[in-house]
Amino acid sequence: MTLAATATAPEQVAARRDARRGLLLTAPALLWCVVFFVLPFATMLVWSFYSGGGPGEGSLGLDNYRRFFTDASYTSALRYSLEVTLIVTVLSVLLAFPLAWAIATQVRPDRQRLWLMLAVLPFWTSYVVRSYAWLLVLSPDGVVNQTLMTLRLITEPLELSFHRATTVTGFVHFFVMLCTLTIYASLSRIDPRLQLAAADMGASGWQTFWRITLPLAAPGIASGAFLTFVVTIGDFVTPQILGGNNELLLPQIAMLQITRRGDIPMAAALSVVMVLCVSAAYLLLARWITGARR
Amino acid sequence: MKMSRFSPSASPSPLRRLTLALAACTAFIGLPAHAQETINALVWCDHTDEAFLKAFTAKTKIKVNVKDYEGTGTALSLIEQGKPGDWDVFVVDSTDVRSVVAKKLLAELDPKAFPMNDIPAAVRLPEYHVVGGKMYAVPQKFGYNAIAYDKTKVTAAQAKDINYVFGASAKNKIGIYDYYLPVIGQVAVALGKKPQDLKESDLPAIRAKLVEMRGNARMVGDVVTTQTALATGQISLLVGGGEYTVAGLMAEKPNLDWVLPDVGGIRWQQAIGVMADSKKKAAATQFVQYVLSPEGQAALATSSCYWGMPANSKAALTPAQKKTLRWDEQTAFIAKSFPYPSPSAALDKAMQDMWLSVVQKK
C-alpha cells in the first residue's frame, strides 16, 4: 500500500500545494538551465550531425564524427587534451591539498582569510597576460634561466618554453589556487575532535589522514578537480600561447574550424566530444565521492 | 595580411541577433555629443588606434565604431550574425575580395574617388579588387610574409637562403607563422612554383618540404606569440614573419631584422571597401578616403598593432619611419614577391587539411 493511498484528502491537497510552490520557486533556475544550457546544447548537438552547412542547407549524417575518429590530427588532439587535462588536474590537487591543509590547520583562524587572499592573487591578473608572462619567465633571458646560470647550475639557457610541460605549468599555476579554495572549504569544516578521537583509539597520523581527513575532504577535492578538468579541457588560450602549437588540443582545433574553415558543424561535433569527456569525468568523480563517504 | 576562407551558410538566429544588438549598444556608449553620424567598421587591429579614428571624427564629425577581427572567416561570421546594414566598412585581405564580392557583401566603388594613381601599379592588383569591370575594394596596406630573424643568432646570408629552414642547422631555432596560405606560398616559391598557379597535384611536394621545416620548428604561432618568441630569444628566425613582426620592435631590439629570401617571398595585401547593405555609404566612403589619404596612410602604416607599407606612395611618413619600412627598397621587394595564393574552394580545403596535419605532426 502506498503512502499516497493512506493520506487523507487535506494532506493530499497540502502535498499538491507544496509541489506547486516548489515548482514555482525552482522555476527561475529551471528556466535559466533550459535557456542557457539545454537549448544551446541541443542546438550544438543538432548542428554536429550536419555537414556542408547547417540545418536547411547541409546534409544530415555522421560525417563529422567519422572524420573525427578517422583523422589522426583530430584523434591525437583528443588524446593530447585528455593527457594534459589529467596531468593538470592531478598536479593541481596534489599541490593544492598541502597548501589548503596548512591554511586550514596551521594558520591562526583570524589570519586564514589573508592567506587565502594571497593564494588567489594570480586570479587578479588577466588570463592572457599571465600566459604571456610565463613565456617571458621561461625565456632564455627569463628569471628561471638567469637564476640557474647565476648559480652556475647550467652554462647555456635551457629551452623551457613551447613544450607540454610549459602548458601544464601555466594551467597548474592557475588551478592550484582554485583547488586550494575548494579543498580549504572542506578541510575547515572537519571537526578536529574526530581526528583526536581517532588518535585516542590508536590510529597513526597516516591512518587518521587516510580514514578521517581524506574522506571528509573528498567533496572539496572532487569539486576542485572537476572544475579544473572542465576548464582545462575547454581552454584555448593557455595551450595557444604556451604550447607553441606543438600539440594542438581539442579547443584549438575547434577554433580553427570556425575561424579558418567556417565549419560550424565540425566545431559543434568537437564540442560534443568535449562535453562527453566532461560528463565522464563528472560521473567518475561522483562515484569516487560516494565511495569515499562509505 | 592573414585571413581565412569559408562560406558561412547558416541564417542568423534570434540569439545571434540579440548578441550583436547588445554588442552594438555597448559600442555606441561613449558616442561624443558632437558626432553627427556614426558608422560601423569591421577591421584588422591596425585600424583601432584612438588617434587614427579621432582625427577622422574631428575632421568630418563622423564617429567610427570599430570591431577588430583576425581571419576573414571570423569577419564573415560577424556579418552573418547581424542584419543587413549593421556594418558600413569592411577591411579585408585582397585575396578574399573576390569571394566576398561573390557573396554580394561589397558595394561598387568609384575609382575616381580615391588616389589610385598614387598607388604603385603592382599593388593595385585589379585581378583581386576588380570584378566584372567594377572596383569593389581599394588596396590600403601591404607587407611581406618573409623571414624575420635575430641578427645575433642567424646571419643575413642564412636568413636569405630559404634552404636554411629545411636543413639540420635550423633545428629548434626557427618558428613558423601559423597561417597556411603565406607559408605554403613561400614553400611553393622555394620549389620554383608560382603561388597563384598551385594545383592539388603540387601539394605532396610542398607537404614534404613543410614537414622538413616543421621538424626544425620550436613553435608555430600567431602574430603576438611569434613576435614574443623572436623578441625574447626563444626562436632565432621566423618563417612567414616580416616588417609587421619586427618594425615596431626595432627601436628597442636593433638585433631584429627581416629579409625577403633570395628565391622570392610572399606579399600580403589589405584592402578596404564599403558594405553593399550600408545605409551610410557616403560616410563610409569618406572614411575609406581618409584611410587612403596621406595622413591616414601614415597612421595606418605605423599602427601600434603592427606596421606595414602604406599603399599610397604619398603617405606622410617621417624619414625615420620610411627607413624602418625600407621605403626605398620597395620596388625591388615588390618585384621579388608574389601575392598570396588564391585557391579554389576544393584546393583551399586540401591546403588546410595538409596544414593541420603538418602542424600536428601527423
Number of helices of chain B: 16
Number of domains of chain A: 1
General form of chain A: flat
Helix percent of chain A reads: over 70%
Q: Give the oligomeric state.
A: heterodimer
Question: What would your notes on this structure say?
Answer:
The complex is a heterodimer of chains A (294) and B (362). Chain A has a two-stranded antiparallel ribbon. Chain A is an all-alpha fold and 294 residues long. Chain A contains 13 helices and two strands; from the N terminus they run ααββααααααααααα. In chain A, helix 9 runs antiparallel to helix 10 (205-234). Chain B folds into two domains: 14-142 and 268-325, 3-Layer(aba) Sandwich (D-Maltodextrin-Binding Protein, domain 2); 145-263 and 339-359, Periplasmic binding protein-like II (D-Maltodextrin-Binding Protein, domain 2), CATH 3.40.190.10. Chain B is 39% helix and 19% strand. Chain B is built from 16 helices and 13 strands. Chain B has helices spanning 14-28, 50-60, 72-81, 97-102, 121-124, 126-129, 156-160, 180-190, 203-216, 223-231, 243-246, 281-292, 294-301, 319-325, 330-335, 345-359, and strands at 37-43, 62-68, 89-93, 130-131, 134-135, 138-150, 174-177, 217-221, 237-241, 256-259, 265-274, 309-310, 337-339. In chain B, strands 1, 2, 3, 6, 7, 8, 9, 10, 11, 12 and 13 form an eleven-stranded mixed sheet that branches. Chain B has a two-stranded antiparallel ribbon with strand order 4-5. In chain B, strand 1 (37-43), helix 2 and strand 2 form a beta-alpha-beta unit. In chain B, helix 9 (203-216) packs parallel to helix 16. The model of chain B is unreliable at 1-12 and 22-33 (pLDDT under 50). At the A-B interface, helix 4, helix 6 and helix 12 of A face helix 3, strand 8, helix 10 and helix 16 of B.
